[in-house]
């Protein structure tokens, strides 16, 4: 007779930890978070220093290789990345198979996973050179794939990558330029986009990064692993929050309705949550949110947007929530996505593309973590256990007697 309780009691080293709130799944040298103090560091450098002084390519290099590049190393890295910005021409046909109203994240999951079908020379995960080429390919192609997902949805011709442009600038060009028209990317917006990419580049063992590692732990190829990460990121509790924040601010509509929504969020009988608030690890201000708020003011200033109602609502919401006992007690502070939606909207990026941008940025972190996992000699296939709570020892009844 099976005694389930005794079985678990007798099993060595069994830990029940739903949501993995206190279980470390790996060793890592990439990102450090002190959630109580609101600290985030990549390879030992504070996110504030990186966002203020580096561009996204430097941060990508840092995450991937462990050190900040010098001038020559950076130039070589940028050349290596730009060599891979094109996607295989047959991928055009792949886009044509989607409905025009498909969510761009649905397209991202499909197209990025499908890269495995195009780049057979990047699939041997045991070859460090192939792994690096796959990493460059993913970082380089994401802006192209993301911008094309948008172009497809609005029925415009795809714009090819411009290798004379910087990473963020090139992405904005592919998003908004059209053939036969001169289009110049506003440098202030390109800088803001670059900063948004830096702020989203990596964040320890969050749901999507853990998904990439778990998928990769079985030996799956890097394109498939990153597609798995994109799928995990899509949910509103994770990367989908930036889209959900903007929808929420739009629904609130006017600053005088903020109190009503705060009350809704506190109501135990109402599943509504304030999107952009709270974090599994940060029990203090998310350091990225502070930088994002500053960038938000810069972008709105550059675009001459005064009295943006959504910004007013956001600031009012932040103020009320930070003074409210419920939010103070539960340590719910604005997270990185609280302000990013307002910036992206001001730049003309449609809401459905917000999470795509997050995926674009996080690809560097995902691929750095994936490489670190493969190179870790203690790496084993990820295989969580479970606490079985179902029936045991049932008498079998043949089909015709049930
Ligand atoms: N609004 C209102 N109450 C909240 C919120 C919120 N945004 N977030 C958490 N709470 C409450 C919960 O109801 C719960 O209350 P209880 O203890 O009385 O049951 C308590 O705070 C703890 O919440 P959990 O869901 O247990 O915390 P967890 O660490 O599992 O979740 C999460 C963290 C998913 C981020 C959560 O705070 C949330 O849903 N926030 C809104 C969505 C969001 O902004 N996600 C982006 C995260 S950052 C990122 O991925 C980039």
Automatic annotation (TrEMBL):
GO terms for cellular component: cytoplasm. The active site is at 279, 337. Gene3D superfamilies: 2.20.28.60, Citrate Synthase, domain 1, Cytochrome P450-Terp, domain 2. GO terms for biological process: tricarboxylic acid cycle. Pathway: Carbohydrate metabolism; tricarboxylic acid cycle; isocitrate from oxaloacetate: step 1/2. It catalyses: oxaloacetate + acetyl-CoA + H2O = citrate + CoA + H(+). One of its GO terms (molecular function) is citrate synthase activity. Keywords: Transferase, Tricarboxylic acid cycle. NCBIfam families: cit_synth_I (TIGR01798), PRK05614.1 (NF004126). Belongs to the citrate synthase family. This is Citrate synthase. It comes from Terasakiella brassicae. The lineage of its organism: Bacteria, Pseudomonadati, Pseudomonadota, Alphaproteobacteria, Rhodospirillales.
């Amino acid at each position: 007779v099976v005694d389930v309780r005794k079985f678990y009691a007798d099993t060595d080293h069994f830990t029940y930890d739903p949501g993995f709130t206190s279980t470390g799944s790996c060793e890592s040298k990439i990102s450090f978070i002190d959630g109580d103090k609101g600290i985030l560091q990549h390879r030992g450098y504070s996110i504030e220093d990186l966002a203020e002084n580096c561009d996204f390519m430097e941060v990508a290099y840092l995450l991937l290789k462990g050190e900040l590049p010098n001038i020559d190393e950076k130039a070589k890295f940028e050349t290596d990345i730009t060599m891979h910005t094109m996607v295989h021409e047959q991928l055009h046909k792949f886009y044509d198979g989607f409905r025009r109203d498909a969510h761009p994240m649905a397209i991202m999951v499909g197209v990025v996973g499908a890269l495995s079908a195009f780049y057979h020379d990047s699939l041997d995960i045991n070859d460090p050179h192939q792994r690096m080429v796959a990493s460059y390919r993913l970082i380089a192609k994401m802006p192209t794939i993301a911008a094309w997902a948008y172009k497809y949805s609005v029925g415009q011709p795809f714009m090819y990558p411009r290798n004379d442009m910087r990473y963020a600038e090139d992405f904005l060009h592919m998003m908004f330029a059209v053939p036969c028209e001169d289009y110049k990317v506003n440098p202030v917006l390109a800088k803001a986009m670059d900063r948004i990419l830096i702020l989203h580049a990596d964040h320890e063992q969050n749901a999507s990064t853990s998904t990439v590692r778990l998928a990769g732990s079985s030996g799956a190829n890097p394109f498939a692993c990153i597609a798995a990460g994109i799928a995990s990121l899509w949910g509103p509790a994770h990367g989908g929050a930036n889209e959900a924040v903007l929808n929420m601010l739009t629904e609130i509509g006017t600053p005088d309705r903020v109190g009503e929504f705060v009350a809704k969020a506190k109501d135990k009988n109402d599943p509504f949550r304030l999107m952009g608030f709270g974090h599994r690890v940060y029990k203090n201000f998310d350091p990225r949110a502070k930088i994002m708020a500053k960038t938000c003011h810069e972008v709105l200033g550059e675009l001459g947007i005064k009295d943006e109602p959504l910004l007013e609502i956001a600031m009012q919401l932040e103020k009320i929530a930070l003074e409210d006992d419920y939010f103070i007690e539960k340590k719910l502070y604005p997270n990185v996505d609280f302000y990013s939606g307002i910036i992206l909207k001001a730049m003309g990026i449609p809401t459905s593309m917000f999470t795509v941008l997050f995926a674009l940025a996080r690809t560097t972190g995902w691929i750095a973590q994936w490489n670190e996992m493969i190179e870790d000699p203690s790496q084993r296939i990820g295989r969580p256990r479970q606490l079985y709570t179902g029936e045991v020892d049932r008498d079998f009844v043949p089909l015709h007697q049930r």
